[in-house]
Amino acid sequence: MLEAGGVNEAKEVRTPVGLPKLFKSALDWNLYSTPQHAANKRSIYLARGKLLGGSSATNATLYHRGSIEDGVHGTGGLMRVENPRYNNPLHEVFFQAAKQAGIPENDNFNDWRRSQVGYGEFQVTQSRVAVSRGVTFQLNCQDGNKHSAELAPGGEVVLCAGSIHSPQILQLSGIGPQGQLREKGIPVVVDLPGVGKNMQVCSLPSK
């Protein structure tokens, strides 16, 4: 495994409530989008983890199954999933307001056999687990040289660097829109216009 960043032993990583302190920290890539027309030409901050486990180590630990086949809850295993142990005093007030407004209650957002519309509890993992096997690879080493690794004969690469860094790595490797690659002086290996296009992100309002 080749992973950017360091270990994920910081207390802000191990404790879900520490999530806000990870934003724009040394454990974050501190990325911003290009100016967006739909956001009054503002650049949008894009939180991405720069540590072992990537953004999976810098999230709110919400747990949500993504397929109908996973609709039945299991027990045991390495990942403990449960309702949040702490609720803000406004928690029940918000639920009561939703009920009074006629919004249906959803007591299980992981049950894909029915509509997911409604208010209710999201399950969380109370701890984050990140396992690594292999090496940490650093391009700019202390000796001032750039090092590379070669793939063994018959080997394959599984690229899972997230929605931003995956297309970046592909484009730097010559896979992407040929016009854009040539503009940056990158030799074209595969002309694949969709690389780096059509990303959608859910932004949160703030002061």
From TrEMBL:
UniProt superkingdom: Eukaryota
Cofactors demanded by this protein: FAD
UniProtKB keywords: FAD, Flavoprotein
Pfam short name (any one): GMC_oxred_N
InterPro entries named in the record: FAD/NAD-bd_sf (IPR036188), GMC_OxRdtase (IPR012132), GMC_OxRdtase_N (IPR000172)
Gene3D superfamilies per UniProt: FAD/NAD(P)-binding domain (3.50.50.60)
Domain Glucose-methanol-choline oxidoreductase N-terminal: 162-176
Alphabetical list of PANTHER family matching this protein: CHOLINE DEHYDROGENASE, MITOCHONDRIAL (PTHR11552:SF147), GLUCOSE-METHANOL-CHOLINE GMC OXIDOREDUCTASE (PTHR11552)
Assigned protein family: Belongs to the GMC oxidoreductase family.
Protein known as: Glucose-methanol-choline oxidoreductase N-terminal domain-containing protein
UniProt lineage: Eukaryota, Viridiplantae, Chlorophyta, core chlorophytes, Trebouxiophyceae
